[in-house]
Amino acid sequence: MPERQTPSNALIALALLATACFAGCGQGTEQVTRTDLTPKVLLIGIDGVRPDVLAAVETPHIDALIANGIFSGQARTGYPSVSGPGWSSMLNGVWPDKHGVTGNNFENDRFETYPDFLTRIEQIRPELETFAVMDWTPLGASEDQRHTVSDDIDTKIVLDGYEHGWAEADSMSVQLTVGALTAGNPDALFVYLGNPDETSHHFASIGDEYREAIRLADHHVGLLVAAVKARATYDDEDWLILSSTDHGRTTDGDHGGDTPEERTIYYLASGLSAGRGLLTDSTFIVDIPVTALAHLGLEIDPAWDLDGRAVGLVR
Fold this sequence. Notes:
Layout: H1 9-21, E1 38-46, H2 51-56, H3 60-67, E2 69-76, H4 83-92, H5 96-99, H6 117-124, E3 130-134, E4 155-158, H7 161-164, H8 166-183, E5 188-193, H9 195-203, H10 208-229, E6 237-244, H11 260-263, E7 264-270, E8 277-278, H12 287-295
Parallel strand pairs: 1-5, 1-6, 2-8, 3-4, 3-5
Antiparallel strand pairs: 2-7, 6-7
Helix pairs in contact: 8-10, 9-10
């Protein structure tokens, strides 16, 4: 498993390049922390995004989150750098040697021992409302194995990106989440957007089509953030918006190897309880669910044997 260590000069340069290309990081913004607000979490996962390409694309909504949060363009995913182990680690907070998933067939999973963070919430604080929507079916629906996101959460919606088309399926996922934010009272949500990864695979590149897919994902991020802020109870809530990706990719749209281009990802935490500026400490995909749980006030039990830690929170 990756070790926490001082970032290499190359990775620092990549992070600085990514951050410089975004509209301000908000390092000079006055931050107000309140303890009387209800903590809530929205995790937006965007499949297969290279941080350097993300930095080069016009993404005003992600930029706005960065300006009010903390960001790393040099976080690390595990190996192999494919979606099955990547999303498993992002959702349950351990590396493949523990959760057992080493490919996209999800064989040998140990999700009963290492459940996703939404299921953890249900086990500890069942009164909290949990929600997930995803259009890559292995994450939530399978006939012959457990799901990465279990059936124990309050609301789980699984769409098929291959059936609907990935851009349309992502749009449907976002609209369903907007509906949940508008009509319900969710406390922890996960939204998966698969179009950028599938577009890059289809065109075997990280060129114009891939970049347009990232722009579309940013538009979806804007819709989700707007729905959060439009909530009637928003002024009484402390929303932490997390966003990351499962892996990077090579210039021909491939991934799965151990190169920096394939294993370097981004990490974003935004909101009143998030820090400000650029993360320089080592940050990993397994940190994301631990950060979500910590923000909600759930104490991390050492018996869970998680590999991640809370990153970027100010309380």
